[in-house]
Design goal:
single chain, 187 residues, mainly alpha, Arc Repressor Mutant, subunit A, Tetracycline Repressor, domain 2, 9 helices, 0% strand, TetR family transcriptional regulator, transcription, transcription regulation, DNA-binding, TetR_C_31
Amino acid sequence: MTATALPRERRHDPHRRERIVAACLDVIAERGVAGTSHRRVAAAADVPLGSMTYHFDGMDELLREAFTSFAGQVAEQFEERMAHAADREAAVDAVVHLITRDVFATQRDLVLTHELYTLAARDPAYRTLTNAWMARSRAALERHFDPLTTRLLDAVIEGVTIHRALDTEARADSDVVEAVRRITATA
C-alpha cells in the first residue's frame, strides 16, 4: 500500500514582508547592525530562512527597508505633534514635548536612531534616508517657525535628546523649556 503524497499546503501570509522588516528593527535594537543576520531576523519574524532571500535581494535591501520604515514612523509622529499646534506658543510646547517625551522615547528608538546615523556616516545611500527624515522634520517645524529658527530647533532637538538619553543622571525638563524658549524668543 502506497501513501499518496498530498500537495503541501501553502501558508498564506500576506504580511510576511512587513513582519520581517519589523523583526529586523527588533534585532538591530537588540544586537546592532553588525549583529543582525538573515538567520536572526528570520527567527525573530518566525519565518523560514528562505523567506529572507525571497523578499529581499540581500541584507542591505533589508536594512534600507527597515530603516526607511523606522524613519517614516518617527517623522509621522513628529509631523503629527507639530500639526496639532494651533499657534506659536503651542508649537513651542510641542517642540518641548518632542524632546522630553517623543524623540528617543524608548531605549529601542535611541539605539535604532544611532545605528542609522552610524550607517549614514559611512554610506551615502543611508545619508539620503536621514536627509529625507530631517527634511520632513524641518518642514513640520517651518509651519510655525522661520527657516533659521527651524534649523536651530532641529539641531537642539537632536542634540538635547541625545544628551538626555545618554546622561547618567536625569535632567530637568525645565532645561529643555528654557533652551527652546531662548531659541524661539528671537525669531
